[in-house]
Amino acid sequence: MTTLVNKLVNIQGRLKAPKNQRNNFGKYNYRSCEDILEAVKPLLAEQGLALTITDNIESAGGWGEDPGISYVNATAKITDGKDSISVSAQAGVDPNRKGMDIAQSFGSSSSYARKYALNGLFLIDDTKDADATNTHGKTLVRPDEKVDVKKPMLKPNTPEFDKVKSYMDNGGDIEKVQLKYNISDAAKIKLVNK
């Protein structure tokens, strides 16, 4: 008798989800959630498995007046009708994302979280995917760089951060910001992602 795990291993070994999408601005190819679904559906049918993907909106952090951050928690689950295996992934939601209304912002985060839940379930490696590492032309601090104790730490949800974020959104240079501030990882991610 073939178990659910055996069927999943079979799909993981045979799944080919090429990077058919193109980001002309960043000059890289990537795969979308839809590309993965298109490639996996025939393999699921062949194995007699059903796939579902669900989203939940969660929040993290926040104290006092700070609301913290909202994020989409997406779960991809396969089942044979008896047993199931699931993987979850998260993506932050920026309701003030430039050029998007609130629905588009949540939809974008949902697609991103769903894609990475599918990546985890089906062992799709995106570490070399520019979509996973793109900084949109802005250079990040090297991980081995030392923290300068003479400079203040730039953290999200502060007036200083808001000024720097505005500067970055208008084409500012992260290296100039680093001359004035130490930048927390959370702040760095918010600064380079629009």
* Tally of DSSP helical segments: 7
CATH class of the largest domain equals Alpha Beta
Q: Could you give the distance between the termini?
A: 49 Å
Widest β-sheet, arrangement of strands: 3-4-5
Instruction: Please indicate the percent range of residues in DSSP E strands (runs of 2 or more).
Output: 15-25%
Overall SS class: alpha+beta
* Overall residue-averaged pLDDT value: 81
The domain count comes to 2
Written overview of the protein:
- The chain has 194 residues and is α+β, with helices and mostly antiparallel strands.
- The protein folds into 2 domains: 4-133, Enolase-like, domain 1 (2-Layer Sandwich), CATH 3.30.390; 135-194, no CATH class.
- The protein is built from 7 helices and 7 strands, in the order αββαβββααβααβα.
- Strands 3-4-5 form a 3-stranded antiparallel sheet. A two-stranded antiparallel ribbon has the order 1-2. The chain has a two-stranded parallel sheet with strand order 6-7.
- Strand 3 (50-60) and strand 4 (69-79) form a beta hairpin.
- Helix 2 packs across helix 3 (102-122) and helix 5 (159-169) packs parallel to helix 7 (185-192).
- The radius of gyration is 20 Å and the shape is elongated.
- The protein starts with a helix and ends with a helix.
- Residues 128-145 have low confidence and may be disordered.
